[in-house]
Amino acid sequence: MFTYARTSSVKFMNYFFNIEPALSGTILFTGDRHYILKAAETLFSDSGLRLLKAENAKDALKIIRSEKIAVIVSDNDLPDTRGIDLLEYIREISPKTMGILITTDADLRTAIDAINNGIVSRVIMKPWTGDHLFKNVIEVIKQHQLACSLHTENKAALLSMVQAVELKDLYTLGHCDRVAVYSLMLANAAKMSTEEKKDIKYGSALHDLGKIHIPAHILNKNGPLDHKEQTLIREHPVRGANVARHIGLSERIVNIICYHHERFDGTGYPEKLRAEEIPLEARIVTMADIYDAITSNRPYRDKSSKEEAVKMLTSMGGSVLDPELLELFINKCLISETDPLSIALSEASSYSDEKYQSIMNEIVQVARLTQASN
Question: Cα separations (Å) of 251 from 194, 248, 258, 343?
Fold first, then answer.
């Protein structure tokens, strides 16, 4: 039924460093085949994650009601019910628990429907390998951590998720923080509502979330990417949006993550949207993202000055960038007598949500320190 190769502690650490920060949580494996449960126990023995086991749905539900389970991995062929039915019920009584279904080709249609309906996060087909199972469980654990961080507005955890991407790309440290600040400046100039600006702040901070799946050596490559590497890079908006959508983030946040590489003339990715087809919040973050990229050091070039950046942005109006937003960004945010970072501080203090204000203040402070060091 499966091919098993034990993941050594060294191998786990290699994988761990590719998906920082540190992982924690409890996994529940459900199935009536003792040798598979034993294999799972061995597979995750060096992971730092807690593993519980249940042989049937009844025992699994007892554990769910008494423990905080981050991820449940269930065989679809259980002695007392289908695994998919178990996961659907668990979704109702423990909505923060994420499900992984192990099944056969015969149940594939049901499994796909379960993903589309948000019942499960992943489907693993039999026969599975230890490496494949391990990777999928770790990735869903990360989704669970992100969901908990955002739903509770946990400042430290949220920032660590952003830094998880940046630590893999040595040339973009502080990038997400600065993009959040520039995006809020432009959103303010565009007179967007407080709720819209909150989502823009979260979306811009998490816009590169999908890069967690990209190996660090590709992100830091000093030279042109080959076709396979380019394809992997171009997948990151959709990967990140899928995570955001699954954990219930707002449509605006999902739009930012998914569409921040679209171009105004329709030549971007992933969907080649053009002009107003691109959600306004994504067009705003695209502007901020490109400006920060131009004014930051990268593996293939040195940073440009603000004056050079304005010229480069102007040349992109109507092709890459929304020309109306571009005019606002240049005249109200860059060539303004008021320091954009000071505006960000003022904007943060205008929010009544103390937890949100605390997050904003910390992001702006990080951005100020990062700019001062450039």
Answer: 16, 9, 10, 26
Helix (H, G, I), strand (E, B) or coil at 27: strand
Query: Residue 226: CB partners within 8 Å, gap ≥ 6?
Result: none
SS3 73: strand
CATH number of 153-373: 1.10.3210.10
What are the tokens at 286?
């695209």
CA distances from 72 to 56, 62, 160, 181 (A): 12, 13, 24, 38
Identify the CA nearest to 253 among candidates 211, 199, 205.
199
Q: Which residue has the tokens 């409890």?
A: 26
Average pLDDT over residues 52-63: 94
Q: Are 211 and 236 in contact (CB under 8 A)?
A: yes
Rounded distance between C-alpha atoms, residue 364 and residue 374, angstroms: 15
Distance, in Å, from the CA atom of 132 to the CA atom of 177, rounded to the nearest integer, reads 33
pTM of this prediction?
0.57
* Positions of CATH 1.10.3210.10 in the chain: 153-373
Domain 2-146 sits in which CATH superfamily?
Response regulator (3.40.50.2300)
Residue 310 in contact with residue 330, Cβ under 8 Å?
yes
* Comma-separated ranges of CATH 3.40.50.2300 domains in the chain: 2-146
3-state helix, strand, coil in the chain (%, to 5): 60, 10, 30
Say whether the peptide bond before residue 237 is cis (omega within 30 degrees of 0): no
pLDDT tens-digit series, residues 342-360: 665 555 445 444 444 444 4
